[in-house]
Structures are given as structure tokens and as C-alpha cells.
Amino acid sequence: MGVAMPPNAMEAAFLAQLDENVPAREMLAEAGLPHRRIEEWKWSDLRAVVGKLPAEPGVLTFVAARESDTVAKQGQESALCMPLLASALSKELHIYTLKNGETLELNVDASAGFTHQQLLVLVPAGIKAQLLEHYTVQSCAFANLTLTIVVETDARLDRVVKQDAAPEGALVLTSLIKLAPKARMAQTTLGFGARLARIETHVSHAGEGAQIRLDGACVVGAGLHLDQTSVVCHEGAHGQTDELFKTVVARDGKGVFQGKVYVSGGAQKTDARMQHRGLLLDDKAEIDAKPELEIYADDVVCTHGNALGAIDDEALFYMRQRGLPEAAARTLLIESFLAEPLERIEDEKVREHLLALLRTRLGVVT
Amino acid sequence: MPAIKETIEDVRRLEADKYKYGFTTEIEQEFGPKGLNEETIRFISGKKNEPRWMLDWRLDAYRRWTRMAEPNWAKVDYPPIDYQGLHYYAAPKNASKYKNLGEVPQELLDTYKKLGIPRKEAEVLLGLEGAGQSAAEARTEALSGQVAVDAVFDSVSVATTFKEELAKAGVIFMPISEAIHEHPELVRKYLGAVVPVTDNFFATLNSAVFSDGSFVYVPKGVRCPMELSTYFRINAAGAGQFERTLIIADEGSYVSYLEGCTAPMRDENQLHAAVVELLAFDDAEIKYSTVQNWWPGDVEGKGGVYNFVTKRANCHGRNSKVSWTQVETGSAITWKYPSCVLKGDNSRGEFYSIAVTNGRQQADTGSKMIHLGRNTKSRIISKGISAGRSDQTYRGLVSVHGKAEGARNFTQCDSLLIGDTCGAHTVPYVETRTPKAVLEHEASTSRLSEEQLFYARQRGLDEESAVALLVNGFCREVLQELPMEFAVEAQALLGVSLEGSVG
User: Fold this and answer.
1) Dihedral (C-alpha) B468, B474, B477, B481: value to the nearest 10 degrees?
2) Are β-strands B423-432 and A286-295 bridged in parallel, bridged antiparallel, or unpaired?
């Protein structure tokens, strides 16, 4: 407790790149990279995992449908360690201002070595837009990315995040989302894990009457780790949050779900619902979950549910009776279990694409 | 329903910050030296004439404690505790036996009266000469059911009732300070077996300075003939109380233990760090019920008891079962997580809790269920009610290890907020490492329904009575688990605790 650990190779490499007296440097020198003794990271020991990866700079390739609108030098400050590092260690901040009816596709590929990047996506008032992201992390790469998304009044954003399996890499994707009054957003993540992958989403209902749907489907195979963490903070009244996360873990994979809903005293009439369901397929599989509520307003409806278990034997039996081979029946059950969050995607083309991707991946994992 | 009527009456009778049990008994007390060092521990141990092994055990705990840091992860906020400014031992000076009632200090009798212990039973409790035979008589007069009482008056267990009747059944029920002398083999074997000396900061402190508490041993195949009960009171100003309770249920036995708590009003914060250890062998069952109503501090949160408790059960044997039921309405700070380690195959753990916080109270409480054995089952039902400017957190852990095939857990935690200046939080941790377990968790947070309130008020109930009625309904599932005598008291307590929270 309180005893500073000597920095590992990765931390030393970061420290070498940071100027004296920047907050990121102080934080890193004092606490190091997040590790299991830090409450928010207790099931995802980032420090231990990236400490074993090569501590040299890598290359981040961005393939976007179009150029960013602006490139700024400095990002915003954050109280969170990883965004703070992303801001301090990335050279520039790409800013995208979405147009009405636009679908922006972002393909991000991280090569071996460490990379940091920050992005800002602005959704101006009254428009409707779509953001499709796809993350690939190569072997021995560690990518730390931070996306700040601002959805203005009456605007609507549909976001889809795809994350490829990366058995030898690590990824931390932090999204900082700010919702203006009456802003609407829907986010769906389809993740397959990495040596360690953490998809962390912070949502601030800053204005009144904003809505967010936050969904995720995860398939974690042998030797992989996927952490879905979200913090939804209701500051404005009449806000709505609807979360549905599903996790399937095979072999010795590890799935982590941490979801927090915070309702401040002024956020009356908040309606927040959070559901997490986990399916463990094999003996060595592990799921850790922490659905959390912190509530200071009385006229609210907040619920969360969390259920973990195995495939329902009765359902399996029923399907086999009807002539399906066991393997096919199992796959079908797992697929339908995971499809639920994906089916809530409004855009049919995107929805079908993700369902197809899920089917392909399930064939490999199970 | 008569209990509801009682609640309503209680609410009416009491004014805003008058605490029914907030009296102080003016009797001479003997204090240990102030502060905590090896001398204090030798003093406590010496006072109790303890054998060498016990003193060594305490000193070892103390030395370990000095190297430990106070935990700060709980969602409670309080000024630093000055561990050197406290007395670690207080005993009524005149603990010797009395010849007749006239010799008993009037204040002591009054305390018993206010606690609701009838005079006849008090005679037995006080160890009056010739009172031994009247135990059965006192019992039938005092209570409808059979209840044996071991009253912990500050640190010294004043007396134990119904010892003889229990002895006939082979049940050992006595202050732990006596058990150290009379059954050293049992105490030595099991003390610290469930909560190790170094378990946590407060448990280690307790191990070093524990003053007294209850010891229960139920032999093989015995169903304890009566409910065992103890009343804890914190009486002397500035004297922390550190009870240590150890209950062992041998193969095939059953015991139900009731713990009721009241404490007098005090300005200074009083520290309370108890340790309760339960051990259940094959086919044994322990039911542990608590009603806790310590002084929560005044409206501004001044005073009040700091309650840092470690309660743990080891369901060691096959088919063993432990059930914790608690109604928590008191204390300024609560830090309490009754737990079950489900080691034996087919063992079961249950936790039923009602926690009410009002005024400036802060409670961080919940349960831990550790599934190690096959087909282990656990159930957590927690009802939290926050009012005034209080803060309440449910913090729980359900952990299923790889070998715990067939494990099953159901957790439900519901929070009710009364007013918009209080907080209700839920922090459940769920860890599973086997696909052959099923775990479910549900939580909800809501306010009192306007419609239900309106309905109750239309039928002539004033607002506070209507709230008490609805809250009793909200807690129904837990109240049902309480033994009869406690259920009535608990329902009354709920009403009293919530007074002044509406309007």
C-alpha cells in the first residue's frame, strides 16, 4: 500500500516520452499502469499483461472513409489514467464533425509495439448519423485509444464497435460520451477479446431527457480476456439508459462485466435499466461481474440484473429430440443468446453484417 | 395487524430525537487503562485470569494489528478514530453475587427493566442467591417461548440463564471468558478457526482486546431445546466494546441464536468491533438473528456508534446450513458483511437483511457467499431503506470456485429511497469459475409509490403511519425469517427508525 513499484519496461518507455510536470507523468510515476490492486481494474491486470509486451513504439493505421475535419494538437485532460496517457502520448487529435445522414467508417489497425491515439467525434444539433468502428490489434501490439463523442441537442448517433480477437495483443478502448439535452445515442459492441481487451464506455447525461442504449455481445475464446466496463452518469433529469450485455466464455477465457449507473440528486425521473447475462461453456471458463448502482435521487426507476450459468440442458434436450445434432443445437442456442443485443441495431445492413460475423466466429470458438 | 398498530403507536409516542434506549446507567465501572499497548492487553488478560496461551494469542494479534492499516474502501465517511484515546476494558465494579434484590444497585435493575427483562429473570441474570430454581418460572412468566439470555453488560457477561436446562441437553452456553477456563480445549481449537487473527484490521483489533461474548457448543445430534439470546449494550462513555462470539454446531445439531442490541445515548462516538464465528459440521444448522438498534447519533449526526463487525460462518460439513437474519436500524457507521464459506458439499448459506438509515447514518453492509463445495446453495435477500440525509450501500460478493459444481445463488437487493437527500447504492461482485453453477442477481431502486401512499392515507392513516405500513410490506420477505419474538420488535423498530423522514 502506497509503496511505489519500480516501473516495468512498458511504463519506463512511456515515462521516457513524457515531459516533466505533465499530469500524466505524475500519475504514471505514482501509480503505474492500472493493475489488479486498483478497484476498477481488479479483474483486468493491464500492468501485468502489457509489461510482457515489447516496449517499443508501434504504428497505428487509420483507414477512414474520409479525412478528419480538423487536427488539433492537444486533447482534453481526463481524470482517468488511460485517456490521460492517450492524450499526453499521442501527437495529434483527429476531430470529425459528422453530417446529417452520414455513416463514418473507421478502421483502426495497430501494429506490434505500443500506440496511443485520441479522437473527437462531434454530432451537431438535430442531425442523424452513424459511426462504424473496427479495431484490429496485431500480435505483440498494445493500443490505447480514446474516443470522445459529443452528441448535441436533438441529435442522434448510432454507433457500432467491432473488435477482432487478438490472442497476443492488448487493447484499451475508452469512450467518453457526452449527451446534450434530448440527445439520443445507441451503441452496440461486438467483441472477441485479446490477451487483454478492455472496452470502457463513460456516458454523461449532462442534459435533460437524453437517451442511451448501451449494448454488447462478447465471445471470449481460449486464452482470451475481454472486459466490458461502463459508467453511466445521470446529471440531468428525465434521462433514460437501457443496457443489455451478453457474454459467452469458452475454454479458459475470461469475461468481465462492470457496469455502473450513477444518478445524482438532480436527476429526478431517471429511468435506468441494466442487464448482464453470462454463459460459461467449459470448466476453465471464468466470468466476473459487478453491476453497480449509486443513487442520490428518489423519484427514479433503476434496476439491474445479472445472471450467469451454463447452457440450459432442457433446451438442448428438446432440440436434440427434434433431430438436431448436439453440436448444432449448442451453437444455435449460443447464437440466439448473443443475437439479442445485436438485433436491437436499427440499420438492417449493419445488423445482418454483425450477426453473420458472430456466426463465423462462433464456429471457430466453440 | 397488531404489530402495525404498535408501530404507529411507537412513532407517535416518540419525539424527534428521543432515543428509547438512550439512557446511561449510573453504576460504578472499572476501566482499563486508556490507550492500546501491550500493557493494556496484559491488563485485560490479567483481569480475566486468562491462561498463558490466551494472552500470547492476544499479544500476537496486537503485534500484527500494529502493522495493519485501517481499511478505507467502504462508502462511509468518518473522522479518524483515536485508538489511543479509548478504554479497552470496562466492567461493572460490583460483579459479585448478591444475597438479595436489595443489594443490587437500583440503576442496574432499572437498566434491565428498560431492556424489557422482567424482574424475576433479572434475579437469575444477576446471580442472586436462591434464584437458580426460579429460572423455569421466570422464563414462563417472562416470555411466551423459551429463550435463554446471556446479557453482555459492557464487557462482562453478567450472568447466564438457564444454564442448567441447557446442560441437561449437553449444550454449552456461557460467556467466552468462562469457556476459556472451563472448556479450553474447545476454545483453543476453534477460536480464530473461521475468522483468522489477521483477517482484517478490525477483526485483528478484536482478537487483541476482546472483552467477552458468548460461547456456544451444541453436541452431536442435539437440537438445542430453546432459542439462545444475548443482549449487547454499550454503556460506559469512551469504552469500545469488543465482543467475541463463537458458536459450534456439531454433527446433526441445531441451534437458533438471537442477538439484540441497544445502546445508550452518548455524545462521543463509540467504537464497536465484534467478531462472530459460526462453525457448522455435517448436517448441522445454525440460525443467527440480529436486531441492532444502537444509538445512530442525533439529527446532525453527532455521536452514535461506529459498528465494524466481522461475522462469518463456515459451513464445514456436508448438508450443513447457516442462516443470517438481521434488522439494522442503528449505528452512525455500519461496516458489516455476514458471510458464509460453503465448504461442505450440499451446504447452504442464507442472508436476510433489512437495513434502515435515517438522519446522518451511513451503512455499508451486505453479505459474502463463497462456494467451495459441490451443490452448495446460497440466497441473499437485502432490503435497504434510506431516509433523511443518510447513505446506504449494499456490498456483496458471490464467488464460485472451479470445483463447486452445481452451485446455485440467488441474490436480490432492493432499495427504497425516502426523500431526495439520501443515497442508496448497490455494489455486488459476482465471480464464477465453473459452467456448472447458476447465479442470479437482481436489484432495484425506487421510491415509495405515491399511489400506495395515497391509498393508505385515504383510509385514514396519517402520512408516517402509511410510510411505516408500506415499509413493513417492502421488508416482508425478511421479517418472515425472524423468530417470532424478534419479528414483532423489528416491525416496531422500523417505524421508529423512520420517524421524521416524511413531510
Assistant:
1) -30
2) antiparallel
Using a CB–CB cutoff of 8 Å, tell me whether A305 touches chain B.
yes
Contact A288 B415 (CB under 8 A): no
Q: What is the H or E stretch that residue A109 is in?
A: strand A103-110
Cα separations in angstroms, B142 against B114, B122, B392: 14, 10, 36
Cell numbers given for A5: 513499484
Helix %, strand %, coil % of chain A (to 5):
20, 45, 35
Domain spans in chain A, listed from the N-terminal domain onward = 59-310
Element holding A121 (H helix, E strand)? strand A113-123
Predicted TM-score (pTM) of this structure: 0.85
Under 8 Å between Cβ of B314 and B343: yes
Q: Along the 503 residues of chain B, how does pLDDT read in single tens digits?
A: 333 444 444 433 433 344 555 555 555 566 777 888 999 999 989 988 999 999 999 999 999 999 999 988 888 888 888 888 887 877 655 444 466 666 666 666 665 555 555 555 556 555 555 444 333 334 333 443 455 666 555 444 444 456 677 888 999 988 888 899 999 999 999 999 999 999 999 999 999 999 888 899 999 999 998 888 765 545 444 445 788 999 999 999 999 998 875 545 454 567 889 999 999 999 999 999 988 877 787 777 777 888 999 999 999 999 999 999 998 888 889 999 999 999 999 999 999 999 989 888 999 999 999 999 999 999 999 999 998 899 999 999 999 999 999 999 999 999 998 888 899 999 999 999 999 999 999 888 888 888 888 898 899 988 888 888 888 888 888 888 877 766 776 777 777 667 666 54
CA distance B75 to A85: 28
User: How far are the Cα atoms of A9, A57, A84 from residue A14, in angstroms, in the given order?
Assistant: 9, 9, 12
Report the distance separating Cα A109 and Cα A96, nearest Å.
19
Q: Which residue has the cell 434510506?
A: B386
* Domain boundaries defined on chain B: 26-94+147-450
Indicate yes or no: CB of A290 within 8 angstroms of CB of B437.
no
CB atoms within 10 A of CB B478: 21
The answer to whether B432 contacts A286, with C-beta atoms less than 8 Å apart, is yes
Q: Which of A283, A295, A301 sits opposite B424 (nearest CB)?
A: A295
| Cα B151 from Cα B133, distance rounded (Å) | 19
Any idea how long chain A is?
A: 366
Strands A286-295 and A254-263: parallel
For A300, the closest of B442, B443, B445 (CB atoms) is B445
Query: Which residue has 469459475 as its cell numbers?
Result: B433
Chain B CB contacts of A303 below 8 Å: 442-445
In chain B, which residues have their Cβ closer than 8 Å to the Cβ of A234? Answer: none
Q: Which of B426, B453, B471 to mutate to test the interface with A (most CBs of A within 10 A)?
A: B426
The contact set of B with A (CB < 8 A) is: 69, 73, 402, 415, 417-447
Nearest 5°: the CA angle A63, A65, A69 is 95
**Alpha helix (H) ranges present in B80-146?**
106-114, 119-125, 134-142
Please spell the DSSP secondary structure of B320-376, one letter per residue. Answer: -EEEEEEEE---SEEEE--EEEE-STT-EEEEEEEEEE-TT-EEEE--EEEE-STT-
Q: Which residues contact A155 (CB under 8 A, 6 or more apart)?
A: A123, A124, A125, A126, A127, A128, A129, A180, A183, A184
Residues 237-296 of A with CB under 8 A from B: 265, 268, 278-296
Report ipTM (2 d.p.): 0.87
SS3 A287: strand
Helix axes B450-458, B463-474, angle to 10 degrees: 120
